[in-house]
TrEMBL record:
GO BP terms, alphabetized: fatty acid elongation
Organism lineage: Eukaryota, Fungi, Dikarya, Basidiomycota, Ustilaginomycotina
SUPFAM superfamilies (alphabetical): NAD(P)-binding Rossmann-fold domains
Name under which the protein is recorded: NAD(P)-binding protein
GO molecular function terms noted in the UniProt entry: oxidoreductase activity
Length: 343
């Protein structure tokens, strides 16, 4: 069956002189390209599934045979949710995070909701020494490690011009987002490569793909992760390791300071469930990479990114966000002043 519009359209095109026909064809292509990409984004987010988690060797019935997953920054927000959901899917879990009491609480939460085995490693990635990384390595060296979630991350307390930012904050962000990610990946990779199939997930941020003024250090470290993951993914693919970067927009956590979830801001539970169902689907990370090494698969995040890419451009979007960052800073300062006055 042909659409009723096709015939009149063909007649219309045929009636045009050649230059106008060429122009009309270019115009139609320009119009259809974003629509075609929108369909791909929606198909990734709503229809197609990702690499099944079963590929990486979980076992709900027999934890002694199940693969292990290491999650950094696992006691709150997105990292905690990865730990809980991976445990429910049949993985044993290593929780690597800063505060032992919070690690114990997450361990008992996992134990009460799944049969997974759990190990905890208290490590402060801000001040981690060689000895700390060796301790982490020793804790995991005998495990059948198949999943690494490089989740721990630090952002600015509030937007600030780079020239006025606190030097300690700048160094802490680089230390946690870059150095800890490199060190943990380096010590885990030999173990991951011992399995037929393994998975690395890096928590990236839209601030890395659309570099955000007044969050310059954070944006730079997250852009580093894009480059690091892309290069690494080629190195390890032939060894059975899938390395993916999650291009994450807002999620309601302590870091985002957004308490209530909404249409565009998922809860960590929603975000992690969607991610685990869509592993390797690019969503709206399509221009540079349709191989799915980078993923934006929460539908509202993906639609936002699609709109920005198609109608604004990633470069121009950086410039436009300067204004909104100034507003966010002004609000944060007002809130601090109110708190200081005890209001
Ligand atoms: N939330 C968002 O909107 C958003 C957007 C884009 C990207 N991301 C990325 O997603 C990741 C997780 O963010 P989130 O929002 O879930 O963060 P979060 O709620 O603040 O949780 C951070 C987790 O990391 C741990 N942690 C913090 N500093 C640590 C340190 N020095 N050493 C060891 N562990 C430490 C925390 O432990 P304690 O509980 O002991 O503090 C906590 O378990 C980050 O890489 C972030 O950049 C988040």
């Amino acid at each position: 069956m042909t659409l009723p519009i096709i015939g009149p359209l063909q007649d219309f095109f045929a009636s045009l002189p050649f230059p106008a026909r060429l122009l009309a064809a270019v115009g139609l292509f320009t119009l259809l390209k974003p629509l075609y990409r929108l369909v791909r984004v929606l198909t990734d987010c709503y229809v197609l599934g990702g690499i099944p988690l079963a590929t990486f060797g979980p076992s709900k019935n027999d934890p002694s045979k199940a693969s292990w997953a290491v999650v950094t920054g696992a006691t709150d927000g997105i990292g905690k949710e990865f730990a809980l959901q991976l445990a429910k899917k049949g993985f044993n879990i290593v929780l690597a995070s800063r505060t032992q009491s919070k690690l114990d609480a997450v361990e008992s939460e996992i134990s009460s909701s799944s049969s997974a085995q759990v190990k905890t490693v208290a490590i402060n990635f801000l001040h981690a020494t060689d000895a700390d990384y060796k301790r982490l390595e020793a804790e995991i060296s005998q495990l059948k490690l198949a999943v690494l979630v490089n989740n721990v991350g630090l952002s600015h307390d509030k937007p600030v011009l780079f020239s006025e930012g606190d030097v300690q904050e700048m160094e802490a962000i680089a230390e946690i987002n870059v150095r800890a990610t490199l060190r943990v990946t380096r010590l885990a990779l030999p173990l991951l490569q011992q399995n037929k199939r393994s998975l690395i997930l890096h928590l990236g941020s839209f601030a890395g793909s659309i570099p955000t003024p007044m969050l310059s250090t954070y944006a730079g470290t997250k852009a580093f992760l894009i480059g690091f993951n892309r290069a690494l993914s080629y190195e390890v693919a032939s060894k059975g390791v899938t390395s993916l970067l999650l291009n994450t927009y807002f999620v309601s956590t302590a870091m985002s300071k957004i308490r209530r979830s909404s249409w565009s801001v998922p809860t960590p539970k929603q975000y992690v469930a969607q991610t685990l169902a869509k592993l390797g689907r690019p969503g709206s990370c399509y221009e540079e990479d349709r191989r799915g090494r980078e993923m934006t698969v929460w539908p509202q995040h993906a639609l936002t990114e699609w709109a920005v890419r198609e109608f604004v451009g990633l470069g121009r979007a950086s410039g436009m966000s300067l204004k909104s960052q100034k507003v966010i800073r002004a609000k944060a300062i007002k809130r601090e002043e109110r708190l200081a006055k005890g209001q």
